[in-house]
Amino acid sequence: MACYSKCVNMFFGHKRHDSVTEKVYAVRTSTAVTPSYDVLFEAMTSTLQSWTAVTVNEVEKLLASVLNKTCQLDPAPTWLVKEMRELLAPFVALLFNKSLDTGCFPAF
Q1: CA separation (Å) from 75 to 6, 24, 47, 52, 108?
Q2: Long-range pairs for 57-64 at CB < 8 Å and ≥24 separation?
Q3: How deeply is 59 buried, as exposed, middle or buried, from its count of CB atoms within 10 A (0-12, 13-18, 19+)?
Q4: Could you give the angle at which helices 85-102 and 56-64 cross, rounded to 10 degrees?
Q5: What is the C-alpha to C-alpha distance for residues 9 and 50, in angstroms, rounded to an integer?
Q6: Which tens digit of pLDDT belongs to each residue from 30-51?
Q7: How far apart are CA 48 and CA 64, in angstroms?
Q8: Contact 56, 93 (CB under 8 A)
Q9: Helix (H) or strand (E) run with residue 96 in it
Q10: 3-class secondary structure for 64-95?
Q11: What pLDDT score was predicted for residue 17?
Q12: Are 74 and 39 in contact (CB under 8 A)?
C-alpha cells in the first residue's frame, strides 16, 4: 500500500490522496465478492505465417501519440496512460507478441 500512496501523491497531490484512496477502497469493496472469471483457452492454429514482433519503442510512440480524450467507461485517464507509457509499454508489447505467437486473441 505504501507504493500505491506514493504514486497517488505523485500524480494527484496530497489533497486528492484521500479522495482517490476512498474511491479505490470503494471499488475493491464492491468487487470483493465477485467470483473470479475463468478464461477458457482454446488452442488455435494460426494462419498468420510470419510477422514482425511489436517493439517496446513502437508501443511507447503509439501511447505518446494518443489523443487526450476520456470516456466514462474507461477507468484509466489518457493522460495517466501517456505519463506511464515507459512502464506500460513492455507489458503491452509482451501481450501483443504472445497473442500473435499463440494465436490467442480476446473475443468480444
Answers
A1: 20, 11, 34, 31, 19
A2: 57/89, 58/93, 59/85, 59/88, 59/89, 59/90, 59/92, 59/93, 59/96, 60/85, 60/86, 60/89, 63/88, 63/89, 63/92
A3: buried
A4: 120
A5: 45
A6: 888 877 777 676 666 656 677 8
A7: 28
A8: yes
A9: helix 85-102
A10: HCCCCCCCCCCCCCHHHHHHCHHHHHHHHHHH
A11: 57
A12: no
Residue with cell 473470479: 36
pTM of structure: 0.53
- The set of residues, in sequence order, having a beta carbon less than 8 Å from that of 36 and lying 6+ positions away, is none
pLDDT at 29: 84
The span from the CA of 67 to the CA of 71, in Å, is: 12
